[in-house]
Specification:
heterodimer, A: mainly alpha, MetI-like fold, 15 helices, globular, B: mainly alpha, two-stranded antiparallel ribbon
């Protein structure tokens, strides 16, 4: 920073701390609620000190032995479903979009721009818009309540292709020429030059797509009708469908914490890649 | 050849359904799908005369402008100050980015819990201040609830982009301005803010899309479109009419309208981003 002004520095810290507190407050409330009994939460106002039922609540949530009026499916199973879905979506998306971005940027073929636009239009058209017919297609293919049904339709969007295209466009032509001089064919160039160069983008996309997959809501809500295939995000919604007092808020909140931890860990641990990749793909 | 996997997937799960939606939007079928009847543009004219649909348009517009405006404003403030801080930027960043990882539905549930009329602690605090909060009955309160939840979730995303944008502004520019006697306030408005405008524009589009579509889960978890239909944004209405009310033709027509809006937005943004804005 250019000037040294203690006032501005304190102001900056103060505002940031307020921001952090406001952002973190819901998490704290959730955590506190997940350590209390249902009765303790129902006394308004609930106490702001963590209670003593942490282990009880979390095991109840994981094993599905809660006493709630609505759904009691075990969260452990849901976590597995979420994890598999998120991983398949992330890996699948990265793989197919690396290939197609490579094709679009480095090859001249008929209808190249047509394909580009065809893919690009899907970029901003989320599943939500075409739920009805997509649902029909999936059920006609017999993919309801399967991992294929949960993941493949979500792979069919173009975010990643577009980001890779932007990145490939910035790769200097000299590299392509040098590779050709050295006798490398297109696939060799792809494998030995492009993929290593895009590691950062791949890592960043992995983080983003993992979270995207984990947090899907509307689509799993339609495709899964069987409790054993619920991702955890849907599970939470099912638990609160009984109204304020009938809901086991302690179990719900324990589940919420469980549902938040894996993606939050991914973001925090891969923060460097995440941020760097986001910024790089932006330029 | 290399395009084959992606083209197959988008053809089956994207263009085919989109074509179906287009087709269905001209048809009317009964609730069991036993008979379909070609009705031409009737579904669309019905929509245009349907007061709840127009109301839903208005709700969506208010909602997305609020979410985009508040989200961008707040995160810009945070990012500007985080950029000023010399020590601890990383700590603040870590503490601010995690809501990005929270599922919208979970965010909806969290805020619902905090604002629940009888047990939520925020509604308790408001009540002790003499403000009667009930998001189940008062539609303004319900709207506030989903806006707050949506903004809370989006702040970290905007924050990251602003911070990155600020840090990519060459220090020499800022220093030159400081030597010329420009204070922090002046420097922000005449150097940093204009140089951030591509980021801001980009974020604005992203936030609009976010508010249009990704907030479905927040709405469904927090208010279920209620009270009445007062927080039923367009996507929620597509879902509700298609899957709960089983009006497939009407729902498909709404999908088509949404698709159209999105395509127009995309083309405009693409032209604009590629030509006028330099990243």
């Amino acid at each position: 920073m250019v000037e040294r002004s203690p006032f501005l520095r304190i102001l900056a810290h103060a505002i940031l701390i307020v921001g952090v507190l406001v952002v973190a407050f819901p998490l704290y409330v959730t955590f506190v609620a997940s350590t209390q009994t249902a009765e303790e939460i129902l006394q308004a106002p609930m106490s702001m000190v963590p209670g003593s039922h942490l282990i009880e609540n979390y095991t109840a949530a994981l094993k599905g032995t809660g006493m709630g009026a609505a759904s009691n499916a075990p969260v452990g199973r849901m976590m597995m479903v979420s994890l598999i879905t998120a991983l398949v979506i992330a890996v699948g998306k990265i793989a197919i979009s690396l290939l197609s971005a490579f094709a679009i940027v480095y090859f001249r073929f008929p209808f190249r721009m047509f394909f580009f636009w065809a893919i690009f239009v899907t970029l901003k058209l989320p599943v939500e818009v075409r739920i009805g017919p997509t649902y029909q297609v999936v059920s006609d293919l017999g993919m309801l309540n399967t991992y294929a049904g949960l993941t493949i339709p979500l792979i069919a969007s173009a975010t990643a292709t577009f980001l890779f295209r932007q990145f490939f466009l910035t790769v200097p032509d000299e590299l392509v020429e040098a590779a050709r001089m050295d006798g490398a064919g297109p696939l060799r160039f792809f494998k030995d030059v492009l993929v290593p160069l895009s590691t950062t983008s791949i890592a960043a996309l992995f983080v983003i797509q993992f979270i995207y997959g984990w947090n899907q809501y509307l689509w799993p809500l339609l495709v899964t009708t069987n409790e054993t295939m619920y991702p955890v995000v849907i599970g939470i919604k099912r638990m609160i469908s009984g109204g304020d007092a009938a809901t086991d808020w302690n179990i719900v909140m324990a589940t919420a914490v469980l549902a938040m931890v894996p993606p939050a860990m991914v973001v925090m641990l891969m923060q460097r890649w995440f941020v760097k990749g986001l910024v790089d793909t932006e330029k | 050849m290399l395009l084959a996997p992606q083209v197959t997937v988008i053809a089956i799960f994207f263009f085919w359904p989109a074509a179906q939606a287009l087709l269905q939007s001209f048809q009317q079928s009964d609730a069991f799908g036993l008979s379909t009847e070609w009705v031409g543009l009737k579904n669309f004219t019905n929509l245009m005369h349907d007061p709840t649909y127009l109301a839903s348009f208005k709700i969506t517009a208010i909602f997305s402008v609020l979410v985009a405006g508040l989200g961008i404003g707040l995160s810009l403030v945070l990012a500007v100050f985080a950029d000023r801080v010399i020590k601890g930027t990383l700590v603040y960043r870590t503490l601010l980015i995690w809501p990005y990882a929270v599922a919208p539905a979970v965010a909806g549930v969290l805020w619902l819990f905090m604002f629940a009329p009888s047990i939520g602690i925020v509604s308790f605090a408001l009540r002790s201040l003499g403000f009667e909060w009930n998001s189940l009955l008062n539609s303004n309160h319900a709207m506030t609830l989903i806006v707050v939840a949506a903004v809370w979730k989006q702040i970290s995303y905007n924050f990251l982009f602003f911070l990155a944008g600020l840090q990519s502004i060459p220090k020499s520019l800022v220093e030159a301005a400081a030597i010329d006697g420009a204070g922090p306030w002046r420097r922000f408005w005449s150097i940093q803010f204009p140089l951030l405008s591509p980021t801001t524009f980009f974020l604005f589009v992203i936030n609009m899309v976010y508010a249009f579509f990704d907030t479905f889960a927040i709405v469904d978890a927090a208010t279920e479109g209620g009270p009445g239909r007062d927080t039923a944004i367009l996507v929620y209405k597509v879902y509700y009419d298609g899957f709960k009310a089983l009006d497939l033709g009407g729902s498909a027509a709404q999908s088509v309208v949404l698709m159209f809006i999105v395509i127009v937005l995309t083309v405009i943004q693409f032209r604009f981003v590629e030509k006028k804005v330099q990243y």
